[in-house]
Amino acid sequence: MVLLSQLAAKLETRNWQKRIKWARTGPPSRSCSDIAFYEDDVCSIRYRKAGNGPAIVFLCDGPATLEVYDNLIAALKSRFTVIAFEAPGNGFSVPKSGYDFGFQPVNDGVARFLRSVTAGPSVLAFSCGGTYAAIDVASRYPELCSHLIAIQVPSWSEEMRWKKRRDPKGIVSTPFLGQLLFPRMMKPRASAWYEHSMADTPCVAHFCSCTEQAFDQGATFALPTMFQNYLSADQAPFDTPSQPTLAMWGEQDQSHAETDKSSSLSLAKNCKLVRLDHVGHFPELEDPIGFSKLVGFFAEL
Question: What does each C-alpha distance from 82 to 18, 71, 117, 135, 182 come to in angstroms?
């Protein structure tokens, strides 16, 4: 199964040269005034960077793309250098031929990106399954992380149960079958996902519109490959970091209705938990002003 998942992941790198060129010269390069690109030997990453002060870094939780970050950036940029990026295989960040979607190689790539775009230790505010990248980076490369904000993510074992609930028939988790069928399902499933996982706010319509436009322009969402290669270990493949950590949960997220949210406290040695009744899966984007106040208090900045 491991070999099959590695072979299936190669489907995500098809036409990578054309896709990078399109991202850098087409509409994805002009959708926001602060769009920028990072490139190394294995991938091209599309990101946004704005503001002044210590860096706070967000990883887009697909299928959401950078276009939904306007209000969050506006709420934080007077105190922080705000950076948001799309992981390779999601949005308009493109994995090159040979890109390894495995847990540690992906996280090493995140570390290289952080070294390139930040000037020192950053607040890493990653969301959902992508949070494990921040946890692993904070543990193995502590010089890159001052604080952690773990958004909408439980312990590894709880995440595996959530993964099973999201893919009960195992279609997305099956090599080749997931990669071939999921792209046909992305558009209708994206809107249904937002409605199921977010609070009843104007954000839902905005997310749906931005995501539909992104898909029309060629955005990708490598959920099958993430399920098969990144979220695949039986045991947590990371150590618990020592940086101050805030685990944040939006209670209106119906996709996590059965998740043990207190399990998030096991993600780091120094972890506090906050549960927010009025938001769902994207608390930082659904209530950016409230998130900004929490971050300022937590990071003491």
Answer: 29, 12, 11, 19, 32
pLDDT at 300: 62
Which run of H or of E encompasses 248? strand 245-250
Cα 163 vs. chain centroid, distance in angstroms?
A: 15
Q: How far apart are CA 133 and CA 209, in angstroms?
A: 28
pLDDT score recorded for residue 189: 85
Give the three-state DSSP class for 287: coil
Low-confidence stretches of the chain (pLDDT beneath 70): 1-2, 300-301
Q: Is 10 left (phi over 0), alpha (psi -120 to 50) or beta?
A: alpha
**Contact (Cβ atoms closer than 8 angstroms) between residue 154 and residue 257:** no
CA 17-22-24 angle, 5° bins: 95
* Alpha-carbon Rg for the chain in angstroms: 18
The verdict on whether omega for the bond into residue 63 sits within 30 degrees of 0, i.e. cis, is: yes
Helix (H) or strand (E) holding 16: helix 16-25
Distance of CA 264 to the CA centre of its chain: 17
Question: Does the global pTM surpass 0.90?
Answer: yes
Cβ contacts of residue 34 below 8 Å, gap of 6+? Answer: 48, 49, 50, 73
Q: What is the spatial distance between Cα 55 and Cα 58, in angstroms, rounded to a whole number?
A: 10
